[in-house]
Amino acid sequence: MQSSLDVVGIGNAIVDVIARADEAFLAEAGLAKGAMTLIDEATAQSLYQRMPPGIECSGGSVANSIAGLATLGAATAFIGKVKNDQLGNVFSHDIQSLGVTFRTPPATDGPETARCLIMVTPDAQRTMATYLGASIALGPQDIDRSLIKAAKVTYLEGYLWDPPRAKEAFLAAMDIAHAAGNRVAFSLSDPFCVDRYREDFRALAERHIDILFANEAELMSLYEVDSFDDGLQAVRAFCDIAVLTRSAKGAVIVTKNELHVIDAAPCAEVVDTTGAGDLYAAGFLYGLTRGLELGECGRIGAIAAAEVISHYGARPEADLKALIQPALAD
After folding, report:
1. Where is 1: in which H helix or E strand?
2. How far is it, in rounded angstroms, from Cα 308 to Cα 317?
3. Sheet bearing 114-120, strands edge to edge
4. DSSP assignment of 259-276
């Protein structure tokens, strides 16, 4: 069947709370700088009360990528679980206002809508404390087969691999996508996730994933190697495409037969690295679903990532379509 959607994302439906903080605050809160820590509802409430003033906006890793794709003009959908509470309404309104199809039924009881408390230190590193709340209630019953079958790419995040029912939902979505002749993309999300599910993620890379997104630390953890190059050689044997981001060093895109080194796009000032990988994935998938060469896809991803790190928040503020035009014209 002909695809009517470019990308459907499945992931945590989260509202981000972003604030500036110093390293002393991170130490006092017991948070590992630059990493993501899962917290319970009581800790989320306590930490929120102690955080410096910040901004609140809809987030979630794959949801951020889908928002970026929609901003670029792609046809998108998102599957994720919220509760019918205030933050759930905020999330639903935000993502639908971008033109994203979002019709996952909200939960009527149980945990509240998820939130991620993000502390940004002066060096622009972000440290995340995440209460997953209602998002982990996602299950196979929430997978919209029609959306998966209609999308060229189904994109999933490692952050949501923990709950057993969500894991079942992911595997079901992968099977539906491949049965329809479509591709599956997956983000390793965080070294924390890789450390917990290394064997699972390796198996996914070998059997289910067509496009893998990973940063340098995640890749090296996945294959338990001491160098980026060793990780690169390990991953290229399995995935059709591996998109490996390296922060200021840019990115490397590999297949079994190709290797593309992509420079980081210029950024006048790095303000907040929140969402850099998410927007890189958005730009890359935008190019890929339009049939562009992998190097071009990587350059679009770099431009999108540079835009999002130039300000607070994980959603683009500038006109991404205008920013990528020079890359498309080359």
Report:
1. none
2. 7
3. 36-38, 126-131, 114-120, 14-20, 54-59
4. EEEEPPPP-S-----TTH
Identity at 327, one-letter amino acid code: A
How many separate domains does the chain show?
A: 1
Output the CA–CA distances (angstroms, integers) from residue 22 to 120, 171, 273, in the order listed.
8, 40, 15
- Angstrom distance (rounded) from CA 243 to CA 261: 10
pTM, whole model, 2 decimals?
0.90
Which domain CATH number covers 262?
A: 3.40.1190.20
The bridge status of strand 259-262 relative to strand 251-254 is: antiparallel
- Is the four-CA dihedral 225, 230, 235, 241 of positive or negative sign? positive
What b/e readout covers 213-252, taking b as 16+ CB neighbours within 10 angstroms? bbbbbbbbbbbeeeebeebbebbbebbebbbbbbbeebbb
Let me know: does 258 contact 241? Beta carbons within 8 Å: no
Per-residue pLDDT tens digits for 174-217 = 999 999 999 999 999 988 899 999 999 999 999 999 999 999 99
* Per-residue pLDDT reduced to its tens digit, 90-138: 899 999 999 999 999 999 999 999 998 989 899 988 898 989 999 999 9
CB contact at 8 A, 215 and 275? no
Q: What does the alpha-carbon distance between residue 97 and residue 83 come to, in Å, rounded to a whole number?
A: 18
Report the alpha-carbon distance of residue 184 to residue 168 in Å, rounded. Answer: 15
d(CA 16, CA 321): 24
Residue 226's domain spans which residues? 5-329
